[in-house]
Amino acid sequence: MITPDHWQTIRDLVAWIDSNNGRDQHEIAMRILKVTEEAGEVASAYIGMTGQNPRKGVTHTIQDVQDELCDVMLTASVALASLSDDPAAVFDAKLRKVAERAAATP
User: H or E stretch including 10?
Assistant: First the structure.
């Protein structure tokens, strides 16, 4: 789970990106699209880990997949923090909703 200290780091990253790129509608769209790019990198690393492409063989490790998953989480958190004044509350509410739904599933 992302802790309050992590959210401060995320806010600092957002401020750094804002200072370099601004925060207009185009920039927000780019931050959201970056999540998709990072997810593609997870898929690529997993394919490489499993050796799915016989021409390339095994090219990645489980650590590579884990690192890419962390990149997705960080990128999504930055995008969320760019859209919300309280990303921690938004994330916590969503996590609770999913957990409640999972607990209700037989």
Answer: helix 4-21
pTM score, whole prediction: 0.90
Q: What are 81's two structure tokens?
A: 């923090």
CA-nearest of 21, 1, 17 to 81 is 17
Contacts 24+ apart (CB under 8 A), 92-97: 95/1
Extract the tokens encoding 1: 């789970």
Cβ atoms of 45 and 64 within 8 Å: the answer is: yes
What is the token pair recorded at 58? 């095994």
Distance, in Å, from the CA atom of 84 to the CA atom of 54, rounded to the nearest integer, reads 44
The percentage of residues in the chain with a pLDDT greater than 70, rounded to a whole number, is 97
